[in-house]
Amino acid sequence: MQGIDYADTYSWDLPLFKKLKLKPFCIEKDGYWKDHPVGRVKDGPAHVDIFVSCCPAQFWKFNIKLPSGKVLYLSTGSGSFSTYWPTIKMFLDDMLVVDND
What we know:
It contains 2 helices and 6 strands; from the N terminus they run βαβββββα. It is α+β, with helices and mostly antiparallel strands. It has one domain. The protein has a 4-stranded antiparallel sheet, with helices on one face. The radius of gyration is 14 Å and the shape is globular. It starts with 5 loop residues before the first strand and ends in a 9-residue tail after the last helix.
């Protein structure tokens, strides 16, 4: 549930949080607009560190370390974790690639 004085994990994101073994969060108003660590998801030799910033809308940051050692830093607009996770998973599965070399 969202309030003016706090923001917590959207109810529709909870099943995915549970599946990925991420701990639900509740951020009070004085923590708005700051990056808060949500957790790390390992996927074989790759992993992603996940951060959320609330206002109370939720903005996500993903630091993806690929098996090659390359690190991608992705940020989102406001939205739910469940909306963005499939795209992040595609990077982890090497189905999306950023080539800026």
